[in-house]
User: Fold this.
Amino acid sequence: MFASALVLLAVWIVWPDQVASNGGQVFFIMLWTLLAYVSFRGAGWVRYAIAAIFVVALWGVANAASPLESMANLPSWEILCGALQIGAFVLLCLPRAHHWFAAVAASDNEE
Assistant:
């Protein structure tokens, strides 16, 4: 997730003409950075937050005038960010990650 935020930041700084909305770009840079930090700290709810973001994104694609055309016109950096985010989500949903989140929660309760 942090890698996705870094890609978004790099595109915003190096190729600002590729960014449709500066406010949206900053929002998603901050969002993915925050979600990466929170998941590193062991908050299991981050998986649900990412799932909600994906649902909203899919809703936007489904409501586009031509969903396939809108997806075909995505720049390569957006495809890379999407792949990084999906990969992070899959890793966070694995049983090993579930055990890690539980262990972090247990250690926080001990303190």
User: Anything to note?
Assistant: The chain has a mean pLDDT of 85.
